[in-house]
Amino acid sequence: MADFLFEPHAPISIPIARGGLFAVRRVYCVGRNYAEHIVEMGNDTRDPPFFFSKPADAVVVGGEAMPYPPETRDLHHEIELVVAIGKDGADIAEDDALSHVYGYAVGLDMTRRDLQALAKKAGRPWDMAKGFDHSAPIGTIEPASAIGHPGKGAITLVVNGVERQRGDLAEQIWSVPETIAYLSRFVTLKAGDLIMTGTPAGVGAVVKGDMLEGRIEGVGTVSTVIG
């Protein structure tokens, strides 16, 4: 057996509601998947979906605090449905896409909005705006075998007891099957992958000490404190 230069990092995992752990491989994120959010960000609703990524170790679980990240003065919340892939596949047919889903969770795509704005203006990647440490708080994964495949239901985010975001899963421009089928044309999806499916309107800034509580009807919750 080969000797590692240093001890390999422990795998990143998310608790499953009915026991066990989901080992995270990759985190894909859909940009702009709710029309009202697209409009509030000044973009065109006719654009096809696009994707960016977060590293697996950006995931924060168990309601743990999320440190306020460095190099930003404009940290924003984005509440999202998270799809947990449980079966490998490439070029997946839309009518077969849901067979590749293990379950669902509620997540937060935290964003350094000022860095994202600079990257957009310069035509540069979003990595430092989206893929920073602790940028993906995610709640417990609910197996699809228990809750089905939610295509509608309220998605909300409350900050310090005040509602900031509200939408419905039915308002997604690209459904979960469509998103999986489209993404799998570009990469092979594997068990352990997560897909964060976009946020409704109402994104806004948070500061140190803020308590974030997200909920999706029929799926679950996510919470974190900005530390």
TrEMBL record:
It comes from the Bacteria. The keyword Metal-binding applies. GO terms for molecular function: acetylpyruvate hydrolase activity; metal ion binding. Residues 27-224 form the Fumarylacetoacetase-like C-terminal domain. InterPro entries: Fumarylacetoacetase-like_C, Fumarylacetoacetase_C_sf. It comes from Devosia chinhatensis. Keywords: Metal-binding. This is Fumarylacetoacetase-like C-terminal domain-containing protein. The keyword Metal-binding applies.
